[in-house]
Amino acid sequence: MPPFFDQKPIFINPFLGKGHLEKALAKGLTPKDSIYIWGRRGVEAVEAYAHAHGNPLFRVEDGFIRSVGLGSDLTQPYSLVVDSRGIYFDPTHASDLEVILETTFFEEALLQRAQTLKRYLVDKKLSKYNVYDAPLPPFSSTKSIIVVPGQVEDDASIAYGAKGMSNLELLRQVRFHRPQGYIIYKPHPDVLSGNRIGKVKTDDALAYCDQIVTEVSIDSVLGYADEIHTMTSLVGFEGLMRGIKVVTYGLPFYAGWGLSEDHQPSQRRTRRLTIDELVAGTLVVYPRYIHPQTLKRCEIEDLLEALEGQRLTYQKSVWIKIRNEISRKSQRLLRYAKGIG
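^ thats the sequence. predicted structure below, dont judge the formating
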């Protein structure tokens, strides 16, 4: 985390003992300090202190091109967003990203940069985690092919952006809206790893979809897609960059701008964007990036070039596989101890 900030942050961990605010005050929190909160986590006492004393308050979350490897495997992130208004996955409040997309005049040079980035991401098959490299085995269908990406069901983007919808309910909705479609369901890699919640029993899923694909690259799946149907998944954004029709059942950051078919309207998002404007705001203007080798702040183009080499190492490294397995088993034990596994 420290490389993303101009000053070294002081971390507060209330796992044992006092709460967030008490520990922060004990570590020297004053009204002059900026406060950073991970995600949409509710820390009411800290927020009340910030509002009462005028502390700048920010929400922090992983960026859209994060790493080679899952965040839930405790893999180092190379991209973060730091939001002064809200956070991009919570449409109940405006976020810095939403304001950027609603109000920014995107100069031609920035749009050209976004267009180049879009081509690079698609050509190099780069995405948020860059975990799976195996292609989807060839198949044919005379029906329209609908890709449904699964999500982590206890993720805040589902709670706030899709009203707590489940993966199974999403599949039911997609089958209802596309009764003649060939539906491919791809579970989320965090769920497949056992790190997060959202697994759908195979028989239950196959009652609404035609095929389940697991450890294959998302790019190879999208290569077959006529449409993507999603709650709030980043796969929808990746589909838009590929010119695929996207249907949303929640309200992700890329919905409401005239680029997707949306079941949930947005009153604040009144502007019609091009895909290059969406990419420019989302990938260039909004996040912060650090370089995997130097851990110094960098531009997204520098990160993407470095991720190419990292991805090859990740796929071949036995040590990384062992480390991930240890991490996953430890997390399962913790969830079991807490009664949520």
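The two ends are 28 Å apart (CA to CA).
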